[in-house]
Write a structure and sequence with these properties.
This protein is of the alpha/beta class. Strands 3-2-1-9-11-10 form a six-stranded mixed sheet, with helices on one face. Strand 1, helix 1 and strand 2 form a beta-alpha-beta unit.
Length: 249
Amino acid sequence: MSKIGVISDTHNCLREPVQKLLQGCDAIIHAGDFCNDDTFRRLQDLAPLYAVLGNADKRLSDPLPQTLSFQLFGLNIFLIHNKNAIPKTELLSNKDLIIYGHSHKYEQQRLNGQIWLNPGSCGVKRFRLPVTMALIHIKNDDDPNAACAPDEKTDDRFESERFESKRLGFHFDIERIDLSKNQPDFTSQPPENIRTVVQNVMKDVDKGKNVSAIAKKNRINIELAECICRLYLTHPGVNADGILKKMGL
């Protein structure tokens, strides 16, 4: 049996529970938005890493591709940060898994015999959005002794769904993992006037103020200021309502 860890949008935050879950993986897939070299290097030390460039990865030392097509333990995989940016010329008909990120929202659906998977974000928590990732457990059908996803489901953080692949001769489970419980919320509760705060932060960014000054002026914590600034800078043309939507508010 093989196990693949699937994560995205870590944004400078590699949580200890995430590292523990990835330590037993045969490979790690990251759908972009590392934001720094440290997270990239630490993941490389855990297992072979397959990754693409996110819209917030402008400071990475190593260049990453915008898209990546590869085969892993018999699965044909296509990887991109934002599914809306998939090139029209990209051939996806031969792919078993299309993996993407960007929205910070877990998605898993079967379309035309393919699995489309967004593991969500396991980095900085955005208000109401859960902290999630996925594990893929692959079992060859000719191995009767191999178990697939763990049988112990007493922990309600874990949900799994099995997918059969007669063409490939094996089946695999995709395990959704919600790490929101007992995890720190880096942005705590938003202020009541959050829309006004977002508008003011956007104006301060346009004036060239740094994050610390913005946080102090608007009387918000540094994590919230960083979150708003990052969304504003990495999504050209976005307005206050768009930022609130991306924050799950």
